[in-house]
Amino acid sequence: MRGKKAAARASELASATIDKLTDPSASYRGASEAKAAAAQRTSEFREMRDDLPKEKRWTEGQMAKAKKAPPKGNKRGPLRMTGKGKLIGVRVLPSLLARIDEWASKQDGEVSRPDAMRRLIERGLSPGRA
After folding, report:
1. CA 111, CA 104: separation in Å to the nearest integer?
2. Residue 125 Cα distances to 21, 34, 100, 129, angstroms
């Protein structure tokens, strides 16, 4: 029963607040009056929260987290690099690219083009090859 009373009181406060905000004849209050009104509303809401059953209460941290605006812009975040090596760009003639792809297709398992190029460079620079 206490939860219903608290919900009704919250509804009354919300409608009263909306009426105050939309009233065109309301005069501008000073900063100290606005702070006092905000403190009063906060204490009223805390009292209402305390009237709710425990499973329906929010903690201060949950309320603060809920008030935060969602991040703007790209929601995916920065692109992740696959390694710590330096990225280089290389132009490769179509004939050489075809030979790299052919070599990659003959390897065990599926080898990507960048991985095939890394393996060929490693083989070419190994100590046994001069």
Report:
1. 6
2. 75, 74, 16, 7
As given in the structure block, the two tokens for residue 118 are 């890394």
Kindly state whether residue 75 falls inside one of the protein's structural domains: no
Q: Which of 33, 67, 101 is the last residue of a domain?
A: 67
Number of domain units in the chain: 2
d(CA 19, CA 44): 17
pTM, rounded to two decimals: 0.37
Q: How confident is the model at residue 45 (pLDDT cuts 50, 70, 90)?
A: confident
